[in-house]
Amino acid sequence: MGFFSEFKAFAMRGNVIDLAVGVVIGAAFGKIVTSLVDQIIMPPIGMLIGGVDFSAYKWVLQAAGPDGKGEVAVQFGAFFNTLIQFAIVAFAIFLVIKLMNRLIKKQEDAPAPPAPPAAEVVLLTEIRDLLKNDLPR
Asked: How confident is the prediction along the chain (137 residues), in pLDDT tens digits per residue?
């Protein structure tokens, strides 16, 4: 089997395709959450704490030089935005997993069909029925 045919067999497996779809959807979901945090959640929080864009908060360790370059700063506002984004994504994944577990549990809870009776039981039932029909009334 050649290298390319092996790769094709690998890439066409269901798990690889499902993973690729999950990555693409996850990236799109990440962009939605970033927009939600940056454009909807953080502006009201910034307004409450003084009307400043919260992501601009930073602790300057070394000021920029005369050319405007070289500033060293800890950007805790941007980090806080990222933490909120992570919390939203983690909560959304939690809800999806909880829903999937609920669906799987419902499938497991469905009663299994009764097992067929053993061969001896079937034979004894047939004998009983034959005897019942042959007995005089």
From this structure: 688 888 888 777 767 777 888 888 888 888 888 888 888 888 887 788 777 777 778 888 888 888 878 888 898 888 888 888 888 888 888 888 888 888 877 766 667 788 888 889 888 898 888 888 876 65
- How many degrees, rounded to 5, is the angle at CA 102 between CA 30 and CA 22? 30
What distances in angstroms separate CA 62 from CA 20, 55, 74, 81, one per listed residue?
43, 19, 10, 23
Residue 10 is encoded by which pair of tokens?
Answer: 């690998």
User: What predicted TM-score, i.e. pTM, was given to this entire model?
Assistant: 0.55
Query: 41: Cβ–Cβ under 8 A, 6 or more apart, which residues?
Result: 84
